[in-house]
Amino acid sequence: MIVLDTSVISALSEIGRLDLLSEILNRLGTNAIIPHTVEKEIIFQEAIALLKKNGGWIEVEKVKDYKKYLLNLHDGESGVIALAKTHGWIAALDDLDARKIARKENVKITGTLGIVKMGYERCPIKDKQELQLIINELKNVGFFMTPDIQERILDTEKLKIKFS
Q: Could you name the CATH architecture of 2-112?
C-alpha cells in the first residue's frame, strides 16, 4: 500500500496524469490510500472523484496519532507519516521536512518523481521521450526538482520483467 500526500495527487492532477498513477500502482501490485487529513486538502475535482467512497480506487482511512508531527508539518503530511508508520506502508511525500521526519520514524518513502521513475521502469511510461515530457510538464506547473534528481530519473533503465 502507498500512502499518498496531497502533493503527489496535486502534481499529477495539474498535468492531467492521475490515470498514470493508477497504472503504475497496478503494475506494482499495490493500492493507494490517503489519510483523512489529505482528503480535506484535495482541491482537484478529478482527484476527489477517484476516492473509493465516490466509486474510485483511492481508499481513505481515518488516522490517529498524527498530531505529534504537527509542530513541523501540515495535517496532510502528518497523517501520511502516521498512517504509513502504523501499517508499515510506503509514504509518498515530496516535502523535504516531511521526508526527513519519515526517515527518522523509519518509514519507507517515495515521492512524485519516484513514482514517475517506477512508471518508466515498469512500462506505463513507454520511452525516454515520454519520461522527459512528464518531467517538463511537472516543471512547467512549478514542481521543484534539482538538475541532479532530473538526471537520475532520466538515467533510469527499463526493468526486464517477464509476464507469465
A: 3-Layer(aba) Sandwich (3.40)
pLDDT in tens, 14-64: 999 999 999 999 989 999 999 999 999 999 999 999 999 888 999 999 999
- How many residues does the structure list for the chain? 164
33: β partners: 3, 59
Give yes or no for a contact between 119 and 20, defined as CB atoms under 8 angstroms apart.
Answer: yes
Which pTM was predicted? Answer: 0.92
Q: Going by C-beta distance under 8 Å and a sequence separation of 6 or more, which residues neighbour residue 76?
A: 5, 6, 35, 37, 38, 40, 41
Is residue 6 within 8 Å of residue 41, measured between CB atoms? yes
Nine-digit cell string for 28: 506494482
CA distance 2 to 89: 6
List the chain domain ranges. Answer: 2-112, 113-154
